[in-house]
Write a structure and sequence with these properties.
The chain is an alpha+beta fold. It is 25% helix and 24% strand. The strands form 2 sheets. A 3-stranded antiparallel sheet has the order 1-6-3. The protein has a 3-stranded antiparallel sheet with strand order 2-5-4, with no helix packed on it.
Length: 189
């Protein structure tokens, strides 16, 4: 009797056989998956399982989100409203930096005259609110108006319009020679 000498297969042969089995087996599984139609019961079970898996992560809570995962470009316009924000969770520093801009009238408003002064937010800032006063030393001047002003103009914005500053107008009604109105605006950047 002759003996056949047995050799171990080379690593290349093993890799080739594994690849051949995976290729044939993979296409067979894919063929079954694409040609098999699920029964009504199977579809119902599949939907139930999928819904259960989705509900495990919904609603998405903070612990499910990586830091920095939600950014402004990923949030649609109007998606976040005040009704959707819990009270006390957003403070001024979260929105932006609030700065105050102030202007004091350089011109003196003479007796019986009126005078106005405006102050504006800087580029990249938006006006939140403003105020003014007649004069730091006068009790005889009267404030006629304090109002927001639209960008590039001393005219008040239209209803729903945007303002970039405030304007105060005073009248010198009592022989005050040094009435100098003052105005300020709170801006957010």
């Amino acid at each position: 009797m002759t003996w056949i000498k047995y050799r171990r297969p080379s690593p290349a042969t093993i890799v080739a056989v594994v690849a051949l089995v995976a290729a044939l087996g993979g296409s067979a599984v894919a063929q079954v998956a694409t040609t098999t139609k699920l029964s009504k019961k199977e579809r119902k079970q599949t939907k139930k399982i999928a819904t259960k898996q989705v509900n495990k992560v919904l609603p998405i809570e903070n612990e499910n989100l990586a830091d920095g995962a939600v950014t402004s470009p990923k949030i649609g316009d109007g998606a976040v409203t005040s009704a959707k924000i819990l009270d006390g969770t957003v403070v001024g520093g979260d929105i932006g930096t609030i700065v105050y801009r102030r202007a004091k009238g350089a011109a003196i408003v003479g007796d019986g005259a009126t005078g106005s002064i405006s102050v504006r937010c800087q580029a990249g800032e938006r006006a939140l609110w403003g105020g003014g006063r007649n004069d730091e030393t006068s009790t005889k001047a009267t404030i006629l108006s304090i109002r927001p002003i639209r960008p590039g103009s001393d005219i008040a914005p239209a209803n729903g319009g945007v303002g970039d500053g405030f304007r105060v107008t005073v009248a010198n009604t009592g022989n005050q020679v040094n009435v100098r109105p003052e105005v300020w605006v709170a801006c957010i950047s």
